[in-house]
Structure formats: structure tokens, C-alpha cells
Amino acid sequence: MLINPATAVLIEIDVQNDFCPSYTRSSGEQVPPGALAVEKGDEVVEPLNLLALSFAASGARVLATADWHPRWHVSFAAAHPGKNVGETVDLPGTGSQALWPDHCVQGTWGANFHEKLDLRPVSLIIRKGFRLSLDSYSAFFENDRRTPTGLEGYLRSLGITTVFLGGLATDYCVLYSALDAAALGFTTLVLSDAIRGVGFPAGSVEAALDRMKSAGITLTPSTGIVMGV
Fold it and tell me: Which of 22, 59, 159, 198 is surrounded by the fewest CB atoms within 10 Å?
């Protein structure tokens, strides 16, 4: 697949410590799993790094997103007395909200990017979910579906027409980012070898892939992408 670097962007979705499992540093030190670790979530790092270097070398843009939650964020079960992780609550303006463990809290280790993710090609980081009472799965809109992150305007200003997405997690932030990108008119491709899912509830990963395909989103391996000049 030959890509025009002037009109393409790679967006690395939420490759943060709290979404990654335990791994061993080169020093031999064992890094603990994140608060909301996705099984094999760290496997997205290598394909993203390789593709990001290819994008940057050709002059194409590479962006990253990150959950950036305040303490007692509305998505945390701990913020809702009597509620547990895995339950849902109904919120004004956003509807059903899944409740998660505290994760990606601003300024903490868990909110940092995975230490093996190469940020040198990244020219912009979009922080999302930083409003106390509003969650954000998509890189484009908060969960009220009205509040923009600013990403769309940024991409339009650069003449971007094609969006590649990879990262975490398939069934949440990757899914909603991809659906929004397609709905906004961008040619949208999701990197099949650079995504991993939460799998909650059961079947959510398979359902997410089906939704993306139904929306006209292309699933493609990163290894088949060649940048033009």
C-alpha cells in the first residue's frame, strides 16, 4: 500500500503504562502491570515504533493520544460509592458510563507512555479525559459527542485526508477514534498488528472489529504500508 506522506497521519492511541502488562526492562528489573492492563498490550509498541520511524522519515506526521484523568474522575468506580469496577452508571449528557479502576491519573507513572514507545517521531500529544465529569474514548470527541479535542481542526489545517490508527484498546479508544475519523470523512485504516483489546464485556473485541468494518474502515497490517516521496 503506497501512501502519500503529505496527506497521511499515524495516531498512536493511549500506549500508556496503566494499559500495559508487566514486562522486563533491559536492566532486568520487572515492571508491574498497569491498573487497567490489556493482555499483550505491550505488543503494539514494536510495530508502532517501526511505522512511526517510516512516517517521520518521509515527512508524514505522527501523533499520540493519552488519557489524562484527574483524581476521582467520573470513569473511576471509586468515584461512585457502592459501585464496583465493571458496573455502569448513567450520566447526564453522556448516557451509560463503564466504571474502571483508577487509571492514567495526571502526573502518575501509570499515565506515562510505555517506556519503550519511541516518542521521537511524535510531533503532537492529545490529552483527553481531563475533565472531572466527562470521559473520552475517542481522539476526536469527548464522550458527550459534542466536545471536540481539537484533533480534527489540526488535521484539516495540515491537509490530512488519511488516518492510520494503532494502540490501546481495540474495543474502546481505538474503536471510537476510528469510527469518528471515518464519520468525519477521513480515509481510516486500523493497524491490525498494532492493536490489542480489553475484552470486556465478553465479545467486545470481535464486536469492535465488526463495527469498524461496517463503517468502511480498513484493517491492515503495518508491514504492508509503504511511504511515497
Answer: 159
90 is catalytic: no
- Domain ranges, ordered by start, for the chain: 2-68+112-200+218-227
Superfamily, domain 2-68+112-200+218-227: Isochorismatase-like (3.40.50.850)
Q: Which of 135, 171, 173, 193 is catalytic?
A: 173
The helix (H) or strand (E) run that includes residue 68 is none
Decide if 128 is catalytic: yes
Q: Among candidates 145, 109, 148, which has minimal Cα distance to 126?
A: 148
Q: Decide: pTM greater than 0.90.
A: yes
Q: Which residue among 14, 18, 102, 193 is the active-site one?
A: 14
Q: How does strand 162-168 pair with strand 226-227?
A: unpaired
Amino acid of residue 164: F
Catalytic annotation, pick one of 102, 104, 128, 180: 128
Cα–Cα distances (Å) from 31 to 41, 114, 203, 212, in that order, read 14, 10, 29, 33
Closest-CA residue to 128 (of 169, 186, 70): 70
- Over range 48-76, report the average pLDDT: 97
